[in-house]
Amino acid sequence: MQTRKLQQVGGGTYTVSIPKEWADDHAFEAGMELHLYSHADGSIVVRTTERDGGALDAVRIAVAGSAPERVARALRAAHAAGFESVVLVPDEGGTGRFDDAQRRAARSVVRGLVGTDLVACRDDEITVQHLLDAGTVSVRQSVVQLEFTALSVHRTAMAAVLDGEGDAEQVRERAAEADRLARMVRRHTTRSLTAFDELDRLGVSRTELFDYDATSRALARVADEAVRTAEVGTALPAPLPEAVGATVRETAADARETVEAATTAVLDEPDAAAAHAALDRRDETVAT
After folding, report:
1. Which residues touch 18 (CB under 8 Å, ≥6 apart)?
2. Whether 176 and 99 share a structural domain
3. Is 177 in the same domain as 230?
4. What is the signed CA dihedral for 194, 199, 202, 208, rounded to 10 degrees?
5. Is residue 106 located within the same domain as residue 152?
6. Which pLDDT does position 126 carry in this prediction?
7. In a shared domain, residues 113 and 243
8. Which residues contact 247 (CB under 8 A, 6 or more apart)?
9. Whole-angstrom distance, CA of residue 232 vs CA of residue 254
10. Can you say how many angstroms the Cα of residue 181 is from the centroid of all Cα atoms in its chain?
């Protein structure tokens, strides 16, 4: 780290010098126009680009091969990276066109992402636009909603095991909702690494956003495991023995309460004591 003294020029403008080596490394020259971006965390970013985060405006990707999954992977990766507009084109070395299966894959991916629109879906181009304004997003509320969904999915999955009343397909649909929310939080987190104004528009600090991201990914895993549990439950030929069922029911309830306590420790005022209590409860639940 280097320090500089703030100086005042002409009784009005403040100036500060920048390290010569750093300026040379970035090809800055005297008289060059630079752009300053002030952020809510008190930082000022110096860039040569006119707009903060401009590198994430759009991306064009050539998709090789005819496998639908390649289209799906490209769209998911570009969305997670934070691009506002994604254009897929067939690789010149292939058939030169997207077939019906690839276009269906694109539609399926877009349905599973929050705030996206399929602008074009032709044999020569697939274009997806992200429409959700970060200024309208509450990341904290999204995690709260994700927590509710994950716990609800887990409860339904356990009903399939214990009472034979669960619907595995319903669990899969609700788990997909949890995945959509987790992907949205991940997108904002990734964008914040390049577009520094993302944090300002979301109204959170970088530390808070990273905490929300880690929590959302953990909650999404709860929903994923619930799907597997529901599939096991629907495949059981008969209900569990009463004594076993009672133990499983109690353990499942303890697990949900542990997840709830852990999430609260992050979403409410971060509390180390509450976090340790949640971890201790987890260990006790696993040991039963």
Report:
1. 4, 28, 46
2. no
3. yes
4. 120
5. no
6. 98
7. no
8. 288
9. 20
10. 7
Q: Taking 90 as the threshold, does the pLDDT of residue 141 lie above it?
A: yes
Total number of domains in the chain:
3
Q: Could you report how far apart the first and last alpha carbons of the chain are, in Å?
A: 51
Residue-number span of the structural domain to which 12 is assigned: 7-52
pLDDT given for residue 54 in this prediction: 64
Q: How far apart are CA 88 and CA 129, in angstroms?
A: 12
* pLDDT, mean over the chain: 91
* 214-233 confidence digits (pLDDT tens): 999 999 999 999 999 999 99
What does the pLDDT look like over 36-67, one tens digit per residue? Answer: 888 877 888 887 766 656 678 899 999 998 89
2 belongs to a structural domain:
no
Sign for the pseudo-dihedral over CA of 218, 223, 229, 231? negative
In a shared domain, residues 142 and 278: yes
Q: In this structure, are 279 and 252 located in the same domain?
A: yes
